[in-house]
Design brief:
Blueprint (H helix, E strand, L loop, with lengths): L1 E6 L4 H4 L13 H14 L6 E4 L3 H14 L3 E3 L21 H4 L14 H18 L4 E6 L1 H11 L18 E5 L1
Parallel strand pairs: 1-4, 2-3, 2-4
Antiparallel strand pairs: 1-5
Length: 178
């Protein structure tokens, strides 16, 4: 399965460096413009369908991309952003953001989804999608933390100790062969 991955367009919380998690934040005007600009770049790709997280920032991005692509859009619950619990809405600078993503450290928080559980959720979702979408090219529209998990999945789950360096930028295309 060929996977094109797009992290949703920019939101106000991205600008403010706030942790969004599963808070259902919409795109801002720049995020809408980013998605429209990316749609033009996707014209030449042979994409069979778009699979999106059910959160509104990804659904908005997917809808804007699909104005050009005109393919089926499917929602996948397993692609939701990590549930950051008590850190939702907090500035990234107010927590050890890198440590929160480190698989080896495996930090546990009061109500934040554990990193190993989060990665396993994404890996299970990708395993299921590979079975269902064999031989197809799909566009996944999801989130920053999801992009880290997909990166490690594509690398054979080899964790390198620098997870946040693998976060996809907003509204930029990344390609994976799964």
């Amino acid at each position: 399965m060929k996977v094109y991955f797009v992290r949703h367009g920019q939101t106000d919380w991205n600008v403010q460096s706030r942790i969004q998690g599963q808070s259902d934040i919409p795109l801002n005007q720049r995020g809408i413009a980013q998605a429209k600009a990316l749609a033009v770049q996707l014209k030449t790709l042979a994409i069979d369908c778009i699979i999106t997280s059910p959160l509104q920032r990804t659904k908005q991005t997917a809808a804007l991309l699909n104005e050009t692509l005109q393919v089926p859009i499917l929602e996948e619950e397993g692609l939701k952003e990590r549930d950051f619990g008590e850190f939702e809405g907090v500035l990234k600078s107010e927590m050890d953001f890198d440590a929160a993503f480190d698989y080896e450290q495996d930090r546990h928080y009061e109500s934040c989804e554990n990193i190993r559980d989060f990665y396993e959720r994404i890996y299970t979702c990708l395993d299921e999608l590979k079975k269902k979408m064999t031989g197809q090219s799909v566009l996944l529209v999801a989130h920053g933390a999801v992009s880290i998990a997909i990166y490690y999945y594509a690398q054979g789950k080899q964790y390198d100790g620098s997870p946040t360096s693998h976060i996809a930028p907003n509204a930029e295309l990344v390609c994976f062969e799964l």
